[in-house]
Each structure stands twice: as structure tokens, then as C-alpha cells.
Amino acid sequence: MKRANAVLKGLIMLLLVFGFVGCDTLEGLNPFDSEKEVSGIIEAIGDNSLTVDGIEYRVTDKTEFEGFNSLADLAVGDEVEIEYKENGGSREAVEIELAGAEDND
User: Fold this and answer.
1) Structural domain harbouring 8
2) At residue 99, does pLDDT exceed 80?
């Protein structure tokens, strides 16, 4: 009986892990993925950052832009998608896409 319980617990863990990894509705929450994604309306723009839904995202020289060329091309109220990673307690933008921009990849 103990062995059956251990096997059952193992199967449940596998289902949870693989189900979680493959679930599209939880995009950005996958614990095995180092990059996360968020979309929303820009509330503020700084010299090297932008704020979406009250959260600041740092923009670096490695940040890729899609649908525009620099932060100067964006405005408060624009809708964006941000791929980011956690870095030293802050959120660093890996890619920022202006809503409606075509993906040419």
C-alpha cells in the first residue's frame, strides 16, 4: 500500500509539472522559464524605464524594440507587450513590442 501511494504521488507530481509547463493560459508563470511576459498600457516613461500596471521595467542597451526604434517613440497610453527577466530585484525588459506591430520572425 505504501508503494502504491508513493507511485501515485510521483504520477501526480509529473502531471502537475508537465501540465504546468505546457499550459498556455499560465504564460509567464512557468517556473522553468527565466523570461516572463506582461502586456498593458504605459503609465510613465523615464530615461531608461517604463511603467506598466504600476510596475517599472528597466530598459537597457540589450533591450529589443519591435514596432518602434526607441523609448522616445512611445507615449503614455500606448499598449505594449514586455518580455522581461528578474535581475537583482528589478525587472529588466528583454523585448518591448508595441501593440499591433507585425512579427517578422
Assistant:
1) 1-28
2) yes
